[in-house]
Amino acid sequence: MFIVDSHCHLDGLDYEKHHRDLDDVIAKAAARDVKFMLAIATTLPDYYKIKQLVGDRENVALACGVHPLNQEAPYDVEEFRRLAAEDRVVALGETGLDYFYQQETKAQQQVSFREHIRTGIALNKPIIVHTRDAREDTLAILREEQVEKCGGVLHCFTEDKETAAKLLDLGFYISFSGILTFRNAEQIRDAARYVPLDRMLVETDSPYLAPVPHRGKENQPAFTRDVADYMAVLKGVDIETLAAATTENFSRLFHIPMSRLGG
Questions:
Q1: Please, how many CA atoms are within 13 Å of residue 109, restricted to the half-sphere of its CB?
Q2: The dihedral sign for the CA sequence 85, 89, 90, 93
């Protein structure tokens, strides 16, 4: 069995308190059948840091992007495009819109979001989207920029079933995190029941949002197994079926051969 953590921030883990090093993180994940992970950058300096941390490990892929909450200062668009084109980079992001925390950078967020999509189309690489309190603008920009030409995923889904339907219509994948297991997350569980198996991913968003039964602890890629186990019950399938489907989806979306993922 093979599970992929489709979204984690490996540079955010506490290597002094909880893990000896990245190989320790990877070993803990593999012990729970989580054998591949996508490491996400939220700024360009962050990308360089993650690239150095990951090195030449074959079981970790990289994403390069500038998070909507990191738009206070402009970034070098040409540098972003150059980094995005690197072979190790399989996706652009995370990008998107967050009006919950930062209303004042709306304009910069929207410009950056469009830049990520356009670069994704130019490079034939999918985008990884974050959205919070910005549903209508997020969907509008995805449509206007013709995101179906590069594809993408809405990560850490916290919207409703209707939003999921609109994203599926755009050819998007939808990724579910440990929030799925939280007591007050019935809207998200309702969406998860609705999203077909061939369009969903699982993730941790480590070090944030540890799933039950690990709430209150630092999240880590190993806990993708808890999200997958929970999702399998929700979907009425066995864990092997859920693992196979989400791994195949990851392979298809990010253009990574199943042979590299161990499938």
A1: 25
A2: negative
Cβ atoms of 109 and 144 closer than 8 Å: no
pTM of the model: 0.97
Q: 62: how many CB neighbours lie within 10 A of its CB?
A: 20
pLDDT given at position 72: 86
DSSP lists the bridge partners of residue 128 as 153
Q: Are 61 and 92 in contact (CB under 8 A)?
A: no
Instruction: Report the C-alpha gap between 218 and 47 in whole angstroms.
Output: 21
Q: H or E segment at 174?
A: strand 173-176
Alpha carbon distance 207, 219 (integer Å):
4
Half-sphere exposure at residue 194, Cβ-oriented, CA atoms within 13 angstroms:
18
Q: Specify the pairing of strand 152-154 against strand 34-40.
A: unpaired
Nearest to 2 by CA among 249, 255, 253: 249
Tens digits of residue pLDDT in 222-233 = 999 999 999 999
